[in-house]
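Lecture 7, part 2: worked example. A protein chain together with nicotinamide-adenine-dinucleotide.
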Amino acid sequence: MMVGVLKETVPGERRVAMVPQALPSLVSKGFEVCVEAGAGAAAGFPDEEYSARGARVAASREEVIQASDVIVRVRADAAGLRAGQAVIGFFDPLSEPQRAREFASAGVSAFAMELMPRITRAQSMDALSSMATVAGYKAVILAAHSLPRLFPMLMTAAGTIAPAHVFIVGIGVAGLQAIATARRLGAVVSAYDVRPAVKEQVESLGAKFVELPLEAGEAEDRGGYARAMDEDFYRRQRELMTRVVAENDVVITTAAVPGKKAPVLVTGEMVKGMRPGSVLVDLAIERGGNCEITVPGEVVERHAVTLVGLLNLPSTAPYHASQMYARNVASFLLHIAGRGSIDFAADDEILRETLVAHEGRVVHARVKELLGEA
Ligand code: NAD
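Predicted complex, written out as structure tokens:
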């Protein structure tokens, strides 16, 4: 089976879907790999490293597409693909279901990495967790960069420097990594999530769990994700968080509900209440944002507070983001095609949950529903 690795085409995207270090796991199982020249360059992986690990480097994109049974991408699209081919990548079919139709019309079998089930068996293929890890880390680094204060407590001959106070809202994979990173930099960290189960994890990382007197009820679904709450709940949450937000130098928000717009948890008024020079990093910006006034793709100053709304943070650490993503993709490939071809008829949750388009049709139940095809 020939795996094709294409250069990413979304402007500013520096990641690559396969890295040289992940090739031996595929090549040793009989896969062949063909890489578009320059595909890994922006992530720090030169063509020679792919060749040295058993891949063929092809000069043109068309050549890779022609040769390949399955194309691996970070941000997948149907452009130039041929019928009967499979493609693996992110394409956010729950937010942009019409993308699934594009793959279907091209006759391409499309697997969405976003839809990987969060089950133990699929942990090594969980690319959302990998990217959230990078984003959580990067959010803290960006905050530290913008903050006019230092993070750690320092006792120096010039006096004592008080540590920065960091508040993190939404403690999934990104939030946990943000806590760990902020703690390593010496900040005093507190955190909140609607899922009460998170409290223990927060405390085990040396942060304080902020108790808000909110009746969250059944805040967690069976998949471990947060449920959507009603607007009354979010209003009360904003009221209760106002003081906490004002007391901290840095606020990092990552709150999300799968398939929904991110809840607004920080209003413009709440930002106004923060001390001058404070920083808010809105990691939910790609889902509409947790802060009412962050600007997608930009770093802006409002009420003397720096608001970071940068998009695609994983792409700002492309070397390791690609390394993690490539391992996820390689595991997935070995899982669905380890015997030399993809068995589309297999009774397998991982294949069923991720396959969105096949044989000219959208085949994923939730995506079909969103398209009104169910
Ligand atoms: P996510 O990106 O969907 O959401 C981020 C966090 O925001 C979640 O923790 C969520 O509870 C929280 N949130 C939602 N609404 C909120 C609100 N109003 N206020 C505060 N917080 C709010 O989450 P994720 O990082 O993808 O992970 C979600 C869960 O899945 C976690 O329990 C995680 O441990 C679990 N998980 C399991 C596996 C696995 O078993 N293979 C893999 C990855 C993640």
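DSSP finds twelve helices and 17 strands in the chain. The first helix runs from residue 23 to 27. Keep this in mind for problem set question 3.
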